[in-house]
Amino acid sequence: MHMKIAGFFHLLLLLVVACLSPGVYAGEGIAERPDVRAFIQSMANRFNFDESDLNQLFNQVVIQDKVLELISKPAESKPWYAYRKLLLTDERVQEGVAFREKYAQDLEKAEMRYGVAPEIIVAIIGVETRYGQKMGNYRVMDALATLSFEYPRRAEFFRKELQSYLLLCRDEGVNPIEPIGSYAGAMGIPQFMPSSYRRYAVDLDGDTHRDIWKSPADAIGSVAHYFAQNGWSAGEPVAFSATTSGTGYARLLDKSLRPAHTLEQLSRAGVDIDARLSGNTRAHLLSLEGESGSEYWVTFNNFHTITRYNHSPLYAMLVYQLADAIKSQNNTKR
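Above: the chain's sequence. Below: its structure in token form.
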């Protein structure tokens, strides 16, 4: 992924014929569309890109209808019990245990530097890409362009990511037409969006490159850095299963995932957890859809930090439970 190029798009001309050959990425390209032309001009004016280079690049872009289909029905739209059953499997746990053992030194180094528990890092990578096995099937350039210009609901967000992507490719000497990622444009082993790559990716293995595609060490360090910068507190709890009584707790349920109440307030409302923590500890009451009714959880600041990686509470709970299962298996093997 770190093939150096003399100019930002020096090798693109060599790839045009191959990329537009029948059956690969056949299509007309989008460089002449007014909205794309405006974007190209903005990149040239704001960041000193060459317009002709960007025209050549966008003429290789193909709008992907499948991307639009997939982003309209993410896995997190499923009920919790179905989502959990789909992703929290014995196989994923065992693969996580093996990943933790294989990269124990890198995980220890990341924990010492950033204070993030190894099992949390492993669980993030396990949920995102099955420990690097499934990093996506779409050219990042195609995915981001499709969502920037054909997905009005979040076009502004994805145009900023497309901007970040072109900047990171220039900074890192990466040919922008080559990287493969998810349908949303997330990249590499930890599935960083381009803006996250630019802000949080680190070179943990010391080879002077921030390679989240081929270096598990860099991926591990980058996830740890992301968490450290987004509020992770070492040694603090993530979540506890809760029981409820009465009806007062219902008024404390809301869509915000920030810990807005104290444990004492939750207790007075009929919420109990099996843990000895200060009554002044800030927490949030979460309700998830289980197979036999609602599941209640009390979540803390570290749970909120996980939602900074993916805003879904289902995702954060899955990461927490996978991390807990990996930690338990690892402790058993000692």
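The CA atoms of residues 119 and 323 lie 5 Å apart.
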